[in-house]
């Protein structure tokens, strides 16, 4: 293989059979269960990297069911997003994500810097209750419940949340183990079609785990819950801060 061919085809690993295809990445019937809860402000400040700023002691715990996603297949993920501000722009810092499918783990980490790890999240309906569970191996680390479609949610508020930017900390090590890339990345979701949105009573429990430490941001009070279904496009990101740039 010629050097020019290597450069032309080097968009993902492995070169001979990339773990994921080139974007854009479109999601159809993407289903969310998002529970917003109040937590400890000091715990938030300990995990949110500068120059992001924590705006209030809230966390959004998410279960996302993705039955139809370009190149990634059918999978589910679960994790925590923290409301933050970056130079006056409000958005969400993606703190932790756990999912059950290799291509989006590889693509999410390599392209954007999503903090993805392999686990077993499930989002399903049990009689009259929407239920999300997250197991790390055989150990239960999170469980969320919500009354199924009790009332219509504010579509404008849901769409505004989906239009807001999200931030990621992308880390790629050098061959000697030192950081070669350490960047704050911003991305958006676009071309959103909201197919339905609901709210209702909800609960959330998080359990301590050494390697899936979602409980390090403890649940003090559930503030709200939302269940919605969308079609959307996950756009590629832009670097907004380079931690390795001495002039940053």
UniProtKB/TrEMBL annotation:
Gene3D superfamilies: Acetoacetate decarboxylase-like (2.40.400.10). It catalyses: acetoacetate + H(+) = acetone + CO2. The active site is at residue 116. It comes from the Bacteria. NCBIfam families: PRK02265.1. This is Acetoacetate decarboxylase. The gene is adc. Keywords: Decarboxylase, Lyase, Schiff base. SUPFAM superfamilies: Acetoacetate decarboxylase-like. The keyword Chaperone does not apply. Belongs to the ADC family. InterPro entries: Acetoacetate_decarboxylase, Acetoacetate_decarboxylase_bac, ADC_dom_sf. It is an enzyme of class 4 (lyase). Its EC number is 4.1.1.4. Catalyzes the conversion of acetoacetate to acetone and carbon dioxide. It comes from Dyella lipolytica.
